[in-house]
Design a protein that fits this description.
- It contains 3 helices and 6 strands; from the N terminus they run ααβββββαβ.
- Strand 3 and strand 4 form a beta hairpin.
- 21% of the residues lie in helices and 30% in strands.
- 27% of the residues are buried.
- The model has no long low-confidence stretch (mean pLDDT 84).
- By secondary structure, the protein is α+β, with helices and mostly antiparallel strands.
- The radius of gyration is 14 Å and the shape is globular.
- A 6-stranded antiparallel beta sheet has the order 1-6-2-3-4-5.
Length: 140
């Protein structure tokens, strides 16, 4: 019997969350997305300039950042799609869709560390998926 190789997302699991961090030892949510795209797809995504202590500024960045124009909302997520989430009323969190065998999860950086959760677990922890987005031109 052969064992299946470990999913690439395991390289990120358990890494600590930290404001303004972009790997390889600490990540914030957008920093994790940036790292996955750089490491796995060789695509450089811009910094977002998130202000975690200022909710109004954080909402503005998620709503108005020019990077949003490079992404299109999709109905069916596939590996590497960005998952925009709300924790409460407004979308202020992002993760990466992963498909590990029959399991579909969102890899995301939140206090205290990077985790992977299915949509049921996300909901149980107060997250609501607001949309799934694919970088224009990306075929995985």
């Amino acid at each position: 019997m052969t064992s299946s190789p470990m999913h690439w997302a395991a390289d990120y699991l358990g890494k600590p969350w930290r404001i303004g961090a972009n790997g390889p030892t600490h990540y914030d949510c957008w920093g994790l997305v940036r790292a996955v795209y750089a490491d796995r797809l060789q695509i450089a995504l811009p910094a977002a300039g998130l202000e975690f202590d200022d909710m109004a500024k954080q909402l503005e960045v998620f709503r108005d950042h020019p990077e949003r124009g490079r992404w299109s909302q999709v109905a069916r997520p596939t590996e590497y799609d960005a998952v925009l989430m709300a924790h409460g009323r407004y979308p202020v969190h992002v993760g990466v869709w992963i498909e590990a065998g029959p399991s579909q999860r969102v890899l995301h950086a939140c206090r205290p560390a990077v985790i992977a959760q299915d949509t049921v677990a996300l909901k149980a922890h107060g997250y609501r998926v607001c949309g799934v987005y694919r970088l224009n031109g990306l075929s995985t």
